[in-house]
Design goal:
The chain is α+β, with helices and mostly antiparallel strands and 305 residues long. The protein has a domain of 94 residues. The chain is 30% helix and 25% strand. The strands form 3 sheets. A 10-stranded antiparallel sheet has the order 5-6-7-8-9-14-13-12-11-10. A 4-stranded mixed sheet has the order 3-16-4-15, with helices on one face. Strands 1-2 form a two-stranded antiparallel sheet. Helix 2 runs antiparallel to helix 3, helix 2 crosses helix 6 and helix 8 runs antiparallel to helix 9. The chain is globular. The relative contact order is 0.22.
Length: 305
């Protein structure tokens, strides 16, 4: 049986693989060099990598975004042509400040509706999965889908709790907050709902900020969504933690604290190297799904193959 199945994302055009090796394993070949590209599983232990290149690739592949730098190069900002959605990458972030910010305004001339911040240690696949879902809705979705991606909300607590339980995450909520952790304890979600989920999981819901985190020790990263952030985009980021997807990294980019916790597959070095510089567009099932229904269909297609 082959060790992996090729899968594709709608975000940065890259090959991501599902591995069957045990966590913590390192598989080498006689021709490995010290820093060949590696396939790392799971993505939330892979490290942030080159966010600037990934953002450039994202903008090259997604229409409708105007890119500019307001400060001479320290920050790259992309504004959607509808003038309400904005993605920002800070190339020199403050120690405790966000590296990535995704934000939506109520109108081109009104106040901020919501924003999501991703710190300097967050793997770039996670903010760009949110950006991809938002971009698809703005460029290809129905009016209802656009509204859902920018301002819409569903019963957030119910949706999150269902997805997390289906993924085998443990409910460790307290009287102050809703909280779930992954089976391996290396990723989690916190929703500051004042203990509403703990008191009555099926009770009425209200908007509340959400934090996602992954990793361990001083390499732990976090992403925060303000209370009005759309459920659709929170679940898109969460899916990067609950589904066993991979990232491509040079070994030196994988945090030392995570190398014994992740699966690093060196047998895929050649494929990984090609995926860092793809020359072809997605094809087959994943491409058809992308054309038809967007990121959700691509995720379904790539995880079922």
């Amino acid at each position: 049986m082959p060790i992996c199945t090729r899968i594709l994302t709608l975000g940065p055009a890259r090959c991501r693989l599902r591995l069957s090796a045990d966590p913590g394993s390192t598989i080498s070949t006689p021709h490995d060099t010290a820093d060949d590209p590696q396939v790392v599983l799971p993505v939330h232990l892979a490290g942030p990598s080159d966010g600037a290149s990934a953002f450039t690739q994202f903008l090259d592949e997604h229409d409708g975004w105007l890119r500019f730098s307001p400060d001479g190069g320290d920050t790259t900002v992309a504004v959607h042509e509808d003038l309400c959605a904005r993605i920002q990458l800070d190339h020199e972030p403050a120690l405790n400040g966000p590296r990535w910010t995704i934000a939506v305004y109520d109108s081109p001339v009104s106040n901020l509706s919501w924003h999501a911040d991703f710190d300097v240690l967050t793997p770039h696949e996670i903010p760009l999965s949110v950006a991809s879902s938002l971009s698809y809705a703005l460029g290809h979705g129905s009016l209802a889908r656009r509204d859902q991606a920018q301002w819409g909300s569903r019963p957030t607590r119910e949706v999150l709790a269902r997805d997390l339980r289906e993924s085998g995450w443990q409910d460790v909520s307290t009287e102050n907050q809703m909280e779930f952790r992954s089976p391996d304890g290396l990723a989690g979600l916190v929703r500051w709902d004042g203990g509403a989920h703990h008191r009555s999981p099926a009770g009425p819901d209200a908007p509340a900020p959400v934090k996602l985190w992954g990793g361990t020790g001083d390499q732990q990263w976090q992403a925060t969504f303000t209370a009005a952030a759309p459920t659709l985009l929170i679940t898109e980021a969460l899916a990067e933690l609950t589904e066993p997807l991979t990232a491509v990294r040079h070994l030196s980019e994988v945090p030392l604290a995570h190398r014994d916790l992740a699966t690093v597959d060196r047998r895929q070095a050649a494929a990984a190297s090609r995926s860092l510089h793809p020359s072809t567009a997605p094809s087959g099932t994943a491409a058809a799904a992308a054309t038809a229904t967007g990121p959700a269909a691509v995720r379904s297609a790539r995880t079922s193959r």
